[in-house]
Amino acid sequence: TLSIASAQSDLVIKGFEEDVNVVASAATGTINFDVSTASVWYYTSNATANHTLNFRYSSGTTLNSALAVGDAITLVWLNTNGSTAYYPNVIQIDGSAVTPKVPAAISAGNASAIDAYVFTIIKTAATPTYTVLETQTKFA
I want to staple 66 with a disulfide (CB 3.0 to 4.6 A). Which of 12, 24, 57, 120 is the partner? Predict the structure, then answer.
């Protein structure tokens, strides 16, 4: 049983499973991560180059317009690597570069593995300004 006090009436639960956008392609170039499609994106073919992740709400809607100041969204990028490792070396929101805060520098992917990148994007000002937290985990 879930009970929500009136002070927490803004809580929105969309469900207990997440949609995953499974793409049978290799990561390369600029990838438009449309959060309206899914919060988890999984490219299943071996990446062929370092790449840019551009977070946006959809092709016609910016993430800026979808988030209010104080909103946060957590997204997962699953990148498959073969014997040569690649990683998302540029992170953008609505086409503008951002510098994520990381627990340890991320300067490469992991060969013969799936790398999971978790991004928490917090909108901190209407200008827009974001705090982006990023982690990388190797699964092999």
Answer: 57
**What are the extents of the domains in the chain?**
18-139
pLDDT at position 3, please?
43
Spatial contact of 100 and 132, defined as CB atoms under 8 Å apart: yes
- Closest by CA position to 132, among listed 59, 67, 86: 67
Closest listed residue to residue 140, CA positions, set 111, 102, 107: 111
Q: Can you list the alpha helix ranges (DSSP code H) found in the chain?
A: 63-66
pLDDT value of position 13:
66
- Residue type at 26? A
Q: Tell me the CA distances in angstroms from 108 to 72, 79, 84, one per residue in order.
A: 26, 12, 10
Chain mean position to CA 111: 21
Which of these, 45, 95, 36, 112, lies nearest to 67 by C-alpha position? 36
Q: Is the pLDDT of residue 29 over 90?
A: yes
- Cis status of the peptide bond prior to 88, with omega within 30 of 0: no
Amino acid at 28: T
Higher pLDDT residue, 115 or 15?
A: 115
